[in-house]
Amino acid sequence: MSAPPVVLVLVGGGPRAAGLVERLAVNAPELFPGAALDVHVVDPHPPGAGRVWRYEQSELLRMNSMAVDVTMFTDASVVCDGPVRPGPSLAEWAGLVTSGGLSGVDLPADVLAELDRLEPTTFPSRRLQSAYLAWFFRDAVEALPPGITVHQHRTSVRRITGSPQGRQRVWLADRSTPLVADAVVLTLGHLDAEIGAEERELVDYASANGLAYLPPDYSADSDLSSVREGADVVLRGFGLAFIDLMVLLTQGRGGRFEESADGLRYVPSGREPRIHVGSRRGVPYHSKTGYRLQGDPLPLPRFFDGQVVDELLASPVEFDFQADVWPLLAKEIAWGYFHELFTGHPERVALPWNEFAAEFAGLPWYSTGMAALVESSVPLVEDRIDFERLDRPLAGLVFATGEEFQEHLRAYVEADVARRSDPAFSADLGAFMALLSVYGQLPRVLNSPKLSPASRLAHADGWWGGFFSFLASGPPPDRLEELLALSRAGIVNFLGADVWVRAEDGAFVAGSASSPDVVRATGLVEARLPAHSLGRTADPVLRALRGAGDVVEEKLSDGRSTGLVRVSPEDNRLIERNGTAHPRRFALGPFTTGRAFAAFARPGTNAPGFRQNDGVARALLRLLAAEGSGNAESVA
């Protein structure tokens, strides 16, 4: 009699789960040959796409990456123990579909129409990305060796029970009997959170005064019906969530953009609110670049590689992110920037790259010697990278009137779009590539007990995370052109930097440090995602595990919590209340201390998420192979 199959349950079926299935497929022949394995994928949303990338959302919402820069496949850059399995990027997949190179791909009419006009440098709709992710999931399932079967459950998980020594019981929302599993992986993606005390007060205040208040939420799921047409509404936050909300509250309500002799023009429908937007910086995220590198290839990282991190972690004393880590990151980002400037645009520099690089490498960032080198080698101020100016472009600027500030910010956004659309400034893309290269090294630093707790919370999790997103995760350039058109049409009003909002006199009152104008509004929308926090999670699985002591928050040495779910650094096993790693439970995603946020990546970047998927898949297969051997012995 053959042994019964061992069972793996994936709680969550989005891109991270799809990537894990693909890694199971390529590693199984080595680690679990002749596998008898049932894989159950549980998610109420479509497999592959999951909640965030599902087709059923507004056709107006788009990605902030070009089609050529999106892949779910490993390539030669990925450093992992399992086999590399190359495959098409989103742009290449689109070309295969339209040319008939892929069979059995059934797509909705609007996605097919978008594929026909897609270019590699297009920023696709999320619906198109949904189709790519759904295809990748099916492709990963088809790549599984004989004996591994995938079962899909379009429901949610309520709780997980079972001792570390025995099989796990995974309780689903739509059935009374559990799935019995040998291993479970939480691949949950972005999570909702219970609102905090301050947000609860604002909810109650809005209810008592007939106002609209929306706490942090995933924008595609926000109920915007309470934001009335013609009303003044404050959007607190100027990142990607704001861009989505801006689109949904304007085009989503029937307005349209059209070209005119003076540039892009917005034609209102009359159903829009008047949007007042502000944030700490007071400016939108930088536009994504619309060009490719012009200079020579550059291996990265150079100044923040594994050896440098080893030396940093070997320090006998506590270290500080701002004082000890940021200078290394800044030097790496500047290295990528200047390399592209010198090799892509040699007519704008005063030294050959090899001479500049030799001196640059020996200088700390940002020393007097470094400043002198840059000033003497890069004649134009606009060609010198200035992190402080990039980070706080409105610092120290105060305008006499609100209209003066509107004109200034429109000029700032216009200049940003022009720079990010002009290959003459491709050095900005060099900085971006260097920024990506350091990200893979950071989890080891951020999880080190030697990192000062105060610096971890304020600088690493606080300032650095925001700066990275501001610099690297901005919208497509045409979204900022639409923002300008909405500003000129009087639909969007810029509040400024260090924005403040008060609930008083039956309204929401808002202003900033940038101008004297104060706005009185009947609505307030928190234009940001909920912060990940185990203590406030709305996810039923994590809540149940937390209540049982089967998951714990990361605690720093001073007792403060980061809100992240603790997992073992070696293989992402869940850490329990007693400090031990559960042998049968794993977790992947931004809610964990594993910190590999992106489930898909830009090709050729040795993506941390891909490396993590491979490591967890191999740990799972070793565990399940041992379980399978035990089952075979018991049957025999």
UniProtKB/TrEMBL annotation:
Signal peptide span: none
UniProt feature coiled coil, ranges: none
Domain FAD-dependent urate hydroxylase HpyO/Asp monooxygenase CreE-like FAD/NAD(P)-binding residue range list: 9-190
Protein name per its UniProtKB record: FAD/NAD(P)-binding protein
Organismal lineage: Bacteria, Bacillati, Actinomycetota, Actinomycetes, Pseudonocardiales
